[in-house]
C-alpha cells in the first residue's frame, strides 16, 4: 500500500478528489504536522510527497529515501527545493494548466480596469465627484490599436493573447523559450525584451519564479517603458523588483499597474502601493473559481498515481534529466511552464 505523506495544511474537505485516481492503487494519504521536524520524523517510509504550500527543504527530501514523486497542488513550485529533488532522481509535478482560463480572465480584467480607471471612476461616484469622471477618461486613448506586450509567453499569456486580440490590441511577446511559430500562430509578434518594453502600452508579466527570474524586471526596465504604460502582473511577485516598480509609479515613469502578486504577500500596511489611486490590486487569487480545489486536487492525484504506477507524470518541472528515477521521459522546465504563467 503506497504511503503518501502530506503536511496538514488547510486540508478541509478531505482527500476525496485526490483519491479518485489513487484508490485503485490502494494508496493512503497520511498527514503530519506542518513543520520540518514532524515531516522528517514521518517521511522514512513515504512513497510520495504531496505539498500544498509549505516549504520543502533539501533535508526534508533526504529524509524520504523511498519517495518516487513530489506533487504540488499549484502552478508555482518555488517553495520546493527542485534542485535537491532532481539530485535524488525524484520528479516534481505541478498543476500548470488546470486553472489557466481563470488567470487569463483575471489578467484581462486588470488590463481593462486599469485602462478605463475603473476603481478611480467608482470612487468619484461614491464621493460625489460625478463631474470628474468624463474629463479623466477624455485623456485616455481608445483601447483598439494599443499594444500589449508579454514578458514570457506560456500557457496563460497565450490565452490572454486570444482574449486581447478580440479587443483590437496589437500583440508582441518576449520569451526565449518559445518558438516564433507558436507566437505568430496567435497573431503575436516575437520581439526582444527591450522592444516589448519600449513599444507596449500594456506590459503583462507571466514569468515563473525561478532562480533565473528573481527581480527579472528592475529600474532600468521600467525606465524603458512609455510614461503612459500600464504594468500587469499575474505571474509571481519576486520576478519584479518591487521597490523599482513603486519608484516608477511614484515618479510617473509609468502610468499605472494591475497587480495580483506582490514581492511580500500579504503586503505590509506601509507598502506605498496600497495608497496609490492609479493601482488595482487583488490578493493573489487570479486562479480562484468554484472549480479551483476540485480541479487541482484531482490533477494532483492523477500525477501521483501515474508515477506510483511507474509512468511519467503529465507535468514535470525538474530542470535536468532524472537518471535515478527509471522513468522513461523527460520534459524541460522553461519559462513557458511558469505561473500562474
From TrEMBL:
<dbReference type="GO" id="GO:0016618">
    <property type="term" value="F:hydroxypyruvate reductase [NAD(P)H] activity"/>
</dbReference>
<dbReference type="Pfam" id="PF02826">
    <property type="entry name" value="2-Hacid_dh_C"/>
</dbReference>
<dbReference type="GO" id="GO:0030267">
    <property type="term" value="F:glyoxylate reductase (NADPH) activity"/>
</dbReference>
<dbReference type="GO" id="GO:0051287">
    <property type="term" value="F:NAD binding"/>
</dbReference>
<dbReference type="InterPro" id="IPR043322">
    <property type="entry name" value="CtBP"/>
</dbReference>
<protein>
    <submittedName>
        <fullName>D-3-phosphoglycerate dehydrogenase</fullName>
    </submittedName>
</protein>
<keyword id="KW-0560">Oxidoreductase</keyword>
<feature type="domain" description="D-isomer specific 2-hydroxyacid dehydrogenase NAD-binding">
    <location>
        <begin position="108"/>
        <end position="286"/>
    </location>
</feature>
<dbReference type="InterPro" id="IPR036291">
    <property type="entry name" value="NAD(P)-bd_dom_sf"/>
</dbReference>
<comment type="similarity">
    <text>Belongs to the D-isomer specific 2-hydroxyacid dehydrogenase family.</text>
</comment>
<dbReference type="InterPro" id="IPR050223">
    <property type="entry name" value="D-isomer_2-hydroxyacid_DH"/>
</dbReference>
<dbReference type="GO" id="GO:0005829">
    <property type="term" value="C:cytosol"/>
</dbReference>
<keyword id="KW-0520">NAD</keyword>
<dbReference type="GO" id="GO:0003714">
    <property type="term" value="F:transcription corepressor activity"/>
</dbReference>
<dbReference type="InterPro" id="IPR006140">
    <property type="entry name" value="D-isomer_DH_NAD-bd"/>
</dbReference>
